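User: I'll paste a sequence; please echo it back and then give the predicted structure.

Assistant: Echoing your sequence first, then the prediction.
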Amino acid sequence: MARLSEDGAARFVILDGDQLYESGDIDRICGRHAIAAVHRGALWRRLESAGRALLDQRRLHATPVQLARIRQDLLLGLRVTRQLADLTPRAGQCAGDQPSAALSRAHLAALREGERRAGGGAGAGSRLEDAHDTLAWLADVYESAIESCARVHREGQDPEAAWRMALTGFFTRILARSWTDDGGAAGERFLADCRAVLDAREAPGPGPALRLARDT
């Protein structure tokens, strides 16, 4: 996403998927807390990252039985992903017709024919040899997800505390602000305004109009 400033310079904020915070939300938070434009993009990225982590971790705080079922599904996904990675060609193997312990020349020929037949569609422009690295990355994702489930069960981490720490660090280190300015309310008001947007997004049904924290 690019935002054109009055002086004609483009400022870019790269966000994946649907945004938790709209541009107007960031403008309101920056305006209320006198956050300079130079920190706007960093604040937006921090809010998106911390907010998504909060929502995901909150959903992971399920019962032990639910966590065990999730972990079983993740383990199945990991096994299948590793098997697929073993049966896809590495870089140069397909073009060079170089068999391996897992892939015979007939296997490679069948994959090449399948690649030609698959042709266009959603995978247009994709290369079969790229699949192995993608699957290896996906296996890492599954492993990290399994560890995350185990950590939640083992340590009972508080997702609210992790979110608060991420935003507190931004306020005190990146912005170099004192948490206790304005009689001790400056930092807490900042957190309240950041949290108000998340709470509005999570509210069931047509939520009420967004209200930021009071000045008092």
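The chain is about 60% helix and 5% strand. Residues 1-15, 206-211 have pLDDT under 50 and may be disordered.
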